[in-house]
Amino acid sequence: MSQTKPEPATAGIETEQTSVGSVFVSNYPPYSVWNESAVPDVQNALTDDPSDDATLGLYLHIPFCRKRCKFCYFRVYTDKNSTEIDTYLNALAEEIELYGKQPALDNRPLKFVYFGGGTPSYISVKHLNTLVERIKKVFPWDTAEEVAFECEPGTLTQKKLQAIKGIGVTRLSLGVENLNDKILEENGRAHLSKEVYRIHPWIKELEFDQVNIDLISGMIGETWESWQDTVQKTIELDPDSITVYQLELPFNTVYSKDILGGDALPVADWKLKREWHQYAFEQFTQVGYEQSSAYTVLKKDKPCKFVYRDAVWQGSDMIGTGVASFSHFSGIHFQNAPSWGDYLSTIESGELPIYRAFKPTDDEKLTREMILQLKLGKINPSYFQSKFNADILALYREEFDQLQNEGMLRIHSDQDEIQLTQRGLLQVDGLLPTFYAQEYQNTRYT
Predict the structure, then answer these.
(1) How many angstroms separate the CA atoms of 151 and 31, rounded?
(2) Whether the Cβ atoms of residue 139 and residue 81 lie closer than 8 Å to each other
(3) pLDDT at 246
(4) Fewest Cβ atoms nearer than 10 Å: which of 65, 80, 131, 345?
């Protein structure tokens, strides 16, 4: 599994330059160690008795987009017609119906639902309503704490927004990324800023429980002036929460392929991206937002939450449906068939499209929750003592001491808290491999 140049997601960010490879850590152990041999463990878990205490979430992958962003690393399609979309959504509903027959999912309520992509807002109102009608017959979500829905501004109409609100969406997430048209065009975004302003009054009128705006620091062509302008314009849009990511270049992006092919792209280095990130959070804080994680700020005067994020980072069960989707169930990780044809043909045969899986040890489950929750900015050792009967300060004494000496975190034993410094928060994903078992360090992440 080793490679000449390890990815930051398994080796940490050791250089200031933005190199090709995954940085953002969304799971542990790395995806590259998942395999077909563990698939029977998933099937066994699904036929067991329902769990009494684990919460359950549902993820729906809608893999369609108007264009593929040059930094995008997700499984998306830009060439599917209405008939193909209909075929896929029918298969998606059939997959959920298959899950509804599994004993371990019998009568379990949903804590959260997440429509991700791709671009969920790409599909028509008719397709959306038909899909939701079928899903709710299997897994109703009227009592779910959160129904989140990702949108690309240019795909939204007033009628579609009304339909999205009508299916019970509580958190609308807008993939704005930037508000400079030249930067949006250069990076392959399908929308321009005028489309953000076109839909803004409709969204306000519908009064969603929470509206989130996504931004990316370090898009190709960014400057201090353009970033400051985007931050100010985002504040003026007055969202309930804002998420800021730092541009990374996993292997399968258009930009990464260009770089590996010999092109020299003006990619901002990590120091500059962190400076932009910090500037944005400072500005947001000054106008009434408070930091919720390394990436998110929430309005102080409005109750906002990220149920999907917090549940996944605390080991919640989540069934991921759709092509290439990831799931976590009864402590086992697994992924669906990653190709269009394999996904559809497996569903057509009446089987769940599970492609690869991984059954972690208890130690690996502990490490996973600990490193993901570190992204919140602070963790409580008592949580891990209670859930895993483990003293993380003793288990990871050397690692925590190292990061504390480097100024990345502070250990407050008397307050039952390990807190990242602002410097640590801005590069938290680069710190997480410190806690990896030796066998997973310096490997391919995916």
Answers:
(1) 27
(2) no
(3) 95
(4) 345
pLDDT in tens, 63-90: 999 999 888 888 899 999 999 999 999 9
Could you list the beta-strand ranges (E) of 32-141: 56-62, 112-117
- List of residues 6+ apart from 355 with CB closer than 8 A: 36, 39, 334, 335, 336, 337, 338, 342
Burial class of residue 228 (count of CB atoms within 10 Å of its CB; 0-12, 13-18, 19+): middle
The CA distance from 385 to 391, in Å, is: 6
pLDDT of residue 380: 97
Give the whole-angstrom CA distance, residue 384 versus residue 389. Answer: 7
Looking at the chain, how many residues does it have? Answer: 446
pLDDT of 285 above 80: yes
Q: Which two tokens stand for residue 361?
A: 């040890």
Are the C-beta atoms of 242 and 294 separated by less than 8 Å?
A: no
Is residue 56 within 8 A of residue 329, CB to CB? The reply is no
| Eight-class DSSP state of 56 | E
- The whole-chain average pLDDT of the chain stands at 94
Q: How far apart are CA 98 and CA 211, in angstroms?
A: 32
Half-sphere exposure of 355 (CA within 13 A, CB side): 23
CA distance 107 to 110: 9
Enumerate the domain spans of the chain.
1-13+361-446, 14-311
8-state DSSP, 192: -
List the CATH code of the domain at 1-13+361-446. 1.10.10.920
Q: Which band of pLDDT confidence, cut at 50, 70 and 90, is reported for residue 5?
A: low
Calpha distance 318→42 (Å, rounded): 13
Q: Pick the closest to residue 54 from 310, 306, 311 (CA basis).
A: 311
Which residue in the block uniquely carries the two structure tokens 């298969």? 91
β-pair type (56-62, 112-117): parallel
**Under a CB-based contact definition with an 8 Å cutoff, are residues 323 and 75 in contact?**
yes
Distance from C-alpha of 192 to C-alpha of 185, rounded to nearest angstrom: 8
Fold of 14-311: pyruvate-formate lyase- activating enzyme (3.80.30)
